[in-house]
Amino acid sequence: MLRTLRNFACLTAAASLAFAPTANACTSFLIKTKNGDPIYGRTMEYAVPLKSEIVVVPRGYEYEAATESGKGGWTWKAKYAATGMNAVDTPFIVDGMNEKGLTGGMLYFPGYVGYVPADKADAEKAMGPWQFLSWALTNFATTDEVKKALANIQLADFPLPFKIGSVTSLPLHYTLHDTDGNSIVIEPVDGKLKVYDNPLGVMTNAPGFDWHLTNLKNYVKLSPVNVPPLKIDGESIASFGQGSGMLGVPGDPTPPSRFIRALGYAISAQVQPDTDSGVRMAEHIVNNFDIPAGFVQEGKGVNEITEWSTVADMTGLRYYFKTEDYQALREVDLKDFDLDAKEMVSIPVDQSYEIPKLEMPRS
Question: Which of 31, 96, 114, 185 has a beta carbon 3.0–4.6 Å from 190's, enabling a disulfide?
Answer without folding.
Answer: 114
